[in-house]
Amino acid sequence: xxxxxxxxxxxxxxxxxxxxxxxxxxxxxxxxxxxxxxxxxxxxxxxxxxxxxxxxxxxxxxxxxxxxxxxxxxxxxxxxxxxxxxxxxxxxxxxxxxxxxxxxxxxxxxxxxxxxxxxxxxxxxxxxxxxxxxxxxxxxxxxxxxxxxxxxxxxxxxxxxxxxxxxxxxxxxxxxxxxxxxxxxxxxxxxxxxxxxxxxxxxxxxxxxxxxxxxxxxxxxxxxxxxxxxxxxxxxxxxxxxxxxxxxxxxxxxxxxxxxxxxxxxxxxxxxxxxxxxxxxxxxxxxxxxxxxxxxxxxxxxxxxxxxxxxxxxxxxxxxxxxxxxxxxxxxxxxxxxxxxxxxxxxxxxxxxxxxxxxxx
Length: 361
Known about the structure:
Blueprint: H1 4-8, E1 27-29, E2 34-36, H2 48-57, E3 70-71, E4 76-80, E5 85-93, H3 123-126, E6 132-135, H4 146-151, E7 158-161, H5 163-167, H6 169-179, E8 186-194, E9 198-199, E10 205-206, E11 211-212, E12 217-218, E13 222-230, E14 241-248, E15 262-263, H7 265-272, E16 286-287, H8 288-291, H9 299-313, H10 317-329, H11 336-360
Parallel strand pairs: 14-16
Antiparallel strand pairs: 1-2, 3-4, 4-5, 5-8, 6-7, 8-13, 9-10, 11-12, 13-14, 14-15
Helix pairs in contact: 9-11, 10-11
């Protein structure tokens, strides 16, 4: 397991803070509602004199950084109104959440209607920036419901991500998390950005990050993901399997293994200023990568995944055939699913052309 010192040259995050929020471990997500047991750290003013004085000090209102939590059909997040990115995004997925008819071709990146415009990123911030729009709660985790999938395209769930990382390593990581539902009944995932300090030539530490667009959207240096997987929450005999990872926001080759980026959960907490899984007795958990191999899918399987998606979105028979021919030219054997998608789309276009020809006659 990697450590903060080994990954980042030592030191903790300085010069920046995030809202400290404690989100309950047990998250029960259904198709129409998300129930979160949460606990927010608050110290009420019990001294009457201090309370009266605070009312005078805050005569014109308490400075407001927005809601602690924002709720959606299949995810919950904490949003940073200054950086215009999420602080963290939490999900609970089962095998039922990742199958269904919801399709990302019906979804569109757009501003979150619940985030004031002055604190929101825009699509224009990302255009020509060199950074892609990276989901923290992936669209494919909500295939069970179109609304849930649409909400993952709100820019409150998006951050600037290296395009190769987004489509490559991080995508394979997301697929791995979905595959965990094959062996666990419930998988809990928390993802988000990190800005890790750098050490200069004079051995001094600095927090440095790029911003993009007119809204100065912060580009994280790293991304984190925390995974907690369990079987039958009512069965207390099997310990929850937990793992935390910190991944650089840059291209990562397929030769790199997921285990290289595993870190103690406390590393993520220290760097983010946030406590995670506070209702879980961590002394009784298992190492996820000890229970499961933490192996990502191969580059060939990822190619099959992307090919199926491209075929699904083809808007004409000509485009469909071009995608198919380009894929076959790579020498990769198509699996049953890719073949099914191609044949179904081919049949749809042929039927459409037949109807058009019949009308013209």
